[in-house]
Amino acid sequence: MSSHYLFTFLGRVPLDQNSGGYRKSTYQFPDGLQKTTSFSGIAIEEWQQPDQVVVLGTTGSMWHVLLELTDTYDQAPELWEDLERSHSNDEVTQSQLDALSEHLSRARDRRWVARLIPYGRDRKEQAEILRTLAAEVPQRTQVTLDVTHGFRHLPMVMLVAALQLKELHEAKITGFYYGAFEMATGGTAPFLELDGLLEAAEWLQALHTYTKDGDYGAFADLYRREGVGESTVGRLEQAAFFERTTNPTLASKQLSTLHSSSPNLETPIGGLFSKELWRRIQWFRSPSRAERERSLAHIYLKRRDYVRAIVFAQEGYISRHLERRGEDLHSYERRDEARNRIKSDNFQKLRRVRNAVAHGDRPKSPEARKALESEANLRKYLEEIFAVLLDDQGAW
Asked: Which residue, 142, 140, 135, 138, is CA-closest to 117?
C-alpha cells in the first residue's frame, strides 16, 4: 500500500486571549465523526491516521503553538521560547523547524515535518510553495490536503498543487478539506469537502486536452467517477476511438446513440461542461458522410493535426464524388477506385502532401516542398486547397 501524506497549514491569525492559541472548535467530518481541537491538522491526523503529517507555514507562523496543541510544551520549553521569539520577529528558520519536527514525530508516534514556505506574494514565491510540496511527496502516494488555516490565498495555491501532484507524481488525492469554523452551529463546525473544485479543474484540463487533440475520451474517467454507467461512458470512448482512427461513420453512430441518452451526462460537475462538449462535436449531426468528413477536415486543421485534416479532406471529397455517381460510399473497393480515378489538381496536391507528412518523403513538387518548409506555409497551403476542394460549391 502506498504511503499517505497529510498536508496542513499553520498561520498567524490573532491568538485567543484565553488559551494563548487557536480557538477550539468541535469539527464534524463528512462521515459524522467529531473531533474537538484548536488545530484542524490534528483532527484530520486522528481521523485518517496518515503515515506523515506535513505542516506548512511561514517565517511568521505560530510554530511554538504546535507544542501547546500537542501537549508537549513541558518537554521542550526552550524550543517553545526559541520559536515564539522568532515568530514575533518574523524570522523562523528551517533549522528550528527541523528540531520541532523531530520533537513532534516522537510525541505523535508518526512522522511530522514542519516545513517553511514563502508567503506567496508573487509568482516566484507561489512557484516555490509548489516546489516545496512536490519535494515532500514521492511517486504514487495518497495525499490529503487541509486548507483550514493559513492565508486566504493559499487554498488556490493548493488547488494547483493537487493538480501538479496528480499529474507529475501520480498521487491520489484522497481528500481536500476546509474546517469551516465560521459555519459552526450548536458548537459544531463542518469539515467541508472541496473535492468538487478539484474535479472541476480536472474537467477544465480534459476540455483543454480535447481542444488540443480532439480526444473527448479524456472525459470518460471523469464521468465514471460521477457515477455515469459503463455503457454510456463506453460509447463516448468508442466514438473518440473511431473518430481518431478516421472512421467518422462509426463514430457518428456512437455519438447519436449517446446523444439520445444525454440526460445521463448531466452530472453535478460534468453537467457544467456537457453543453460545451456537445457544441464541439456537432459534426456528427451533418446529414451525410461527405459533410461529416468535410467538417472534420476543418476541425483538425484548426487543431493543427495536419495528417488527420488531410485524410478527412481526401475522404470527404471521395464521399462526395461517390454520392454524385450514386455509388456505394462504404465499399472499400469503390473508394479505392475513386481515389485513383479522381484527377482534380487539388486532390492530387493533398495526396502528395499527405505522403510527405505521413512518411517523411520529400515531395517532387516544388509547391509541396515549399509548403513543408514551415508550419505557416503548410497551413496556408492546406487552407487554399480546402477552400477549393471542400468549400467551393461548384466543386463540392
From this structure: 135
Q: What are phi and psi of 274, to 5 degrees?
A: -65, -40
Query: d(Cα 146, Cα 11) in Å, to the nearest integer?
Result: 12
**Distance (Å, whole) CA 292 – CA 268:** 31
Structure confidence at residue 19 as a pLDDT band (50, 70, 90): very low
| Angle value at C-alpha 184, between 181 and 187, nearest 5 degrees | 110
Q: How far apart are CA 115 and CA 100, in angstroms?
A: 10
Determine if residue 118 is left, alpha or beta; phi over 0 gives left, psi from -120 to 50 gives alpha, anything else beta.
Answer: beta
Grid coordinates representing 256 are 447519436
The per-residue pLDDT for range 147-204, each reduced to its tens digit, is: 999 898 999 999 999 999 999 999 999 999 999 988 988 889 999 999 999 999 999 9
Q: How much is the pLDDT for 209? A: 87
Judged against a pLDDT cut of 80, whether residue 14 lies above it is answered with no
